[in-house]
Write a structure and sequence with these properties.
By secondary structure, the protein is of the alpha/beta class. It has two domains: 144 residues, NAD(P)-binding Rossmann-like Domain (Rossmann fold, 3-Layer(aba) Sandwich), CATH 3.40.50; 172 residues, Dihydrodipicolinate Reductase, domain 2 (2-Layer Sandwich), CATH 3.30.360.10. Helix content is 31%, strand content 24%. It contains ten helices and 14 strands. The strands form two sheets. An eight-stranded mixed sheet has the order 8-9-10-7-11-12-13-14. The chain has a six-stranded parallel sheet with strand order 3-2-1-4-5-6, with helices on both faces. Helix 8 packs across helix 10. The longest helix has 20 residues. The two termini are 38 Å apart. The structure holds nicotinamide-adenine-dinucleotide. The site of nicotinamide-adenine-dinucleotide has 23 residues, from loops. Nicotinamide-adenine-dinucleotide (NAD) binds next to loops.
Length: 342
């Protein structure tokens, strides 16, 4: 009999994107949705026509349900470790939102739990499924722009309305451990790691002018050195006065790619045999900056065909490590070498 994915979804805010991914996948059946806030759970259940007997407010009901073999986790970052480790110990295949976790200790625990589990683990670094960035990766790997020598990306997203609770209490996004570079900037860092490899050194400056309710810098600029004569830059602003974007430029010895995750086109410069720059090519793209459908399809394929997970716990761990190195550098004024020893 063909193996079927029986899915549980924990967290029904951004987690609704994961739910859509599962509902869209022919070989999957949603067995339970969970949110500890009954009102949020009801809204999601009604929106997606999930029968009420599949609504649960305690995620342990998913951990302990032997039928469920895939679980998506989209709850505050501080809880990723606790919930993922229980799910992995129960042998579930787990898709966990980014960032993997906020502290080195939590990251290491998830990596260990993923290694020990009979289930597979994917961290939801969604930029790897964004059409513009997938296309950029394909062009780089084709050799069309030659060898990379500089890569830059940014994460610009105004958090003004998502760092405070309506009752004035501290929001989980305002936790100092949830620095904007780790929580949001991890998208740009992960993108550069995916396209260009692991930076060996980072140096950063931060400023704080826009988000009075958080204690961490709301803008950070980091430069980084990769092996192989390659440099990079990441800019993170969580208070910016502009539309959300991840502007990205990839410079190679034979060409340049200019793209982002919110535009319907990307620009590709190439050179002729004399090294002269040609007229730019404008490439049309689907705009899909939260491609949870593709993310679920890829994870399902990895589970059903027993393939290694491309966006594994180690990948998530390395991305958090670079982000943590950036925060440390901005705080100490020193160059920091990420420690990839997990
Ligand atoms: N990939 C992306 O671009 C992207 C975008 C937004 C959020 N995220 C990530 O998704 C996760 C959730 O973010 P969000 O924006 O939905 O946060 P949110 O605070 O808006 O919603 C979190 C939901 O989880 C529920 N919840 C909290 N603890 C729970 C528990 N123990 N059991 C069950 N439900 C619980 C809350 O009631 C709430 O409905 C975070 O890790 C965040 O970093 C990723």
């Amino acid at each position: 009999m063909e193996k079927k994915l029986i899915v549980g979804n924990i967290g029904m805010m951004f987690g609704m994107a994961h739910l859509e991914g599962a509902l869209n996948y022919e070989g999957a059946e949603v067995a339970a949705i969970c949110d500890c806030n009954p009102e949020t759970l009801r809204k999601a259940g009604e929106k997606y026509n999930i029968p009420e007997d599949k609504w649960v407010t305690d995620y342990h009901d998913i951990v302990n349900n032997p039928e469920i073999n895939v679980v998506s986790v989209a709850i505050p970052d501080q809880q990723h470790k606790q919930v993922c480790c229980k799910l992995l110990a129960a042998g579930k295949n787990v898709l966990c939102e980014k960032p993997l976790a906020l502290t080195r200790e939590d990251v290491e625990e998830i990596v260990k739990a993923a290694e020990a589990s009979t289930g597979k683990f994917m961290v939801g670094q969604i930029c790897r499924f964004t059409p513009a960035f997938e296309k950029a990766k394909e062009i780089i790997e084709s050799g069309e722009i030659g060898e990379l020598y500089f890569v830059e990306s940014e994460y610009a997203h105004d958090y003004m309305h998502i760092v405070e609770n309506k009752d004035g209490s501290a929001h989980w996004r305002a936790d100092p451990n949830r620095h904007g570079v780790i929580g949001g900037g991890c998208h740009a860092v992960d993108l550069l790691r995916w396209l260009a490899g692991d930076p060996v050194e980072v140096f950063a400056y931060g400023t704080h002018k826009l988000l009075p309710t958080v204690s961490y810098d709301d803008a950070t600029i980091a430069i980084m050195k990769f092996d192989d004569n390659l440099a990079g830059k990441v800019f993170v602003s969580t208070g910016c006065k502009r539309d959300y974007t991840m502007r990205t430029v990839i410079y190679g010895t034979k060409g340049t790619i200019i793209c982002d995750n919110t535009s319907p086109t990307m620009t590709l410069f190439t050179t002729d045999e004399n090294g002269d720059t040609q007229e730019p090519k404008i490439i049309e793209l689907e705009v899909n900056n939260h491609n949870a459908v593709k993310e679920f399809e890829v994870f399902a394929d990895e589970i059903l065909n027993d393939k290694p997970v491309s966006t594994s716990a180690i990948e998530g761990a390395k991305t958090v490590e670079v982000c943590r190195a950036i925060v440390e550098s901005a705080e100490t004024g020193k160059i920091v070498k990420p420690n990839y020893n997990f």
